[in-house]
Amino acid sequence: MVVSVPLVEASAKVRTGFAVNDDADYATPAWTGVIPMKWSSQVPVPDPRGNPAIAPPPNIEHYSRPQ
Question: Which residues touch 44 (CB under 8 Å, ≥6 apart)?
């Protein structure tokens, strides 16, 4: 089942580093840690309603984020 819900407002909890847990939490036989994530650009996708005869400019075509 898939449910679609329109969002009027949203929030997210974002942090860097490890969670601050109680000492008792570390006594359980479970892995703890973080999964580092990267944000990378993909190939530009033109708007289907735009003019297909106009190519992306060089700064868009060759865009990359600093590593």
Answer: 56, 60, 61, 63
Closest CA to 21 of 32, 37, 6: 32
Q: Is 0.85 surpassed by the pTM of this model?
A: no
pLDDT tens for 22-56 read 888 888 888 878 777 777 778 888 898 999 899 88
Element (H, E) at 4: none
DSSP for 16-41 reads -S-----GGGGGSS------------
How far is Cα 44 from Cα 56, in angstroms, rounded to an integer? 8
Torsion sign across C-alpha atoms 22, 23, 28, 31:
positive
Using CB atoms within 10 A of its CB, is residue 9 exposed (0-12), middle (13-18) or buried (19+)?
Answer: exposed
